[in-house]
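User: Sequence recovery, please. Input:
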């Protein structure tokens, strides 16, 4: 997708967010620290610069922007966790909306695979958002820190299979007609794929949906391992379908935060613009960056942010 198309998506989204009811006086942003004389634009500017760096790292490290955004911003910025989670969902959503049409056009994102998963995950994401807003902030902060540290372990141990061996499709996937064909660009071959262990995979998306809504992380970090390693979808199909799924799952959870007044333009606009511009730069750096070094750097940042979130929740 071209830069011009991305900005056509970003600009209306930002303008729309600026007139949302959630941006009213009932959803006041973070209060300045006592004795602080900083101007109102200070924290939005810092947020833009930090999210720009996040956008670069997200592309180079192969992770979603929401996974970096929530633990870092909640741990090092004076914003309430509810506002951070609401913004984190919209950050992940903006990237998914920008990438989704192109992935469908390339026949990499599978609608047959995405629809049953999205139905379960989006419903559970709504429940997760409600749970997250109902729980005390320190409890959510502790759970967030533990989840982020769990993601670090997952990134260290998870294996990937380009084209898993699925000897036979199970009855549920056959009934739902979840199968397809895509062309492998590197070889030019057409690859037929199917999935198995569908009931187990769909059951796991109940947990994934709840966690996505509760923490505002997006769920790409969990979608891909389940689709690829558990259900047996090819890696490219898993990654593309996971990205498309975020446009449905995160929308459901984001409406809950929006309805509660947890979405404000002062955070959303600089975050989305920073992540998108950083992603453009990250794509260019991807050709020369060393994947191993970037991967370890992202894991290190996540581990540090997760530990801080955990300690912050325990201390409060």
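Assistant: Recovered sequence (316 residues):
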């Amino acid at each position: 997708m071209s830069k011009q198309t991305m900005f056509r998506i970003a600009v209306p989204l930002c303008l729309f967010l600026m007139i949302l009811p959630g941006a009213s006086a009932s959803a006041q942003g973070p209060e300045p620290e006592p004795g602080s004389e900083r101007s109102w634009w200070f924290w939005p500017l810092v947020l833009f610069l930090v999210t720009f760096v996040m956008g670069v790292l997200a592309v180079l490290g192969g992770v979603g922007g929401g996974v970096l955004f929530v633990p870092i911003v909640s741990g090092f910025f004076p914003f309430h966790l509810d506002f951070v989670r609401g913004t984190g969902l919209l950050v992940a959503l903006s990237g998914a909306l920008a990438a989704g049409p192109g992935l469908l056009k390339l026949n990499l994102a599978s609608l047959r695979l995405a629809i049953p998963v999205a139905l379960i995950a989006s419903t559970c994401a709504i429940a997760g958002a409600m749970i997250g807003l109902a729980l005390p902030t320190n409890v959510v902060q502790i759970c967030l820190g533990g989840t982020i540290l769990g993601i670090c372990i997952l990134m260290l141990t998870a294996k990937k299979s380009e084209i898993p061996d699925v000897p036979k499709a199970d009855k549920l996937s056959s009934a739902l007609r979840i199968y397809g064909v895509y062309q492998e660009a590197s070889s030019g071959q057409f690859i037929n794929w199917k999935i198995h262990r569908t009931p187990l995979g769909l059951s796991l998306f109940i947990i994934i949906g709840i966690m996505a809504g509760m923490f505002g992380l997006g769920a790409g970090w969990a979608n891909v391992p389940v689709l690829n390693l558990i259900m047996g979808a090819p890696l490219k199909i898993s990654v593309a379908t996971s990205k498309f799924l975020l446009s449905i799952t995160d929308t459901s959870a984001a409406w809950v935060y929006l309805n509660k007044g947890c979405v404000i333009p002062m955070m959303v606009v600089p975050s989305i613009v920073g992540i998108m511009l950083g992603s453009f730069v990250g794509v260019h750096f991807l050709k020369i960056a060393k994947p191993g070094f970037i991967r370890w750097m992202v894991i290190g940042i996540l581990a540090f942010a997760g530990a801080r979130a955990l300690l912050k929740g325990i201390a409060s």
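Residues 43-315 form one domain.
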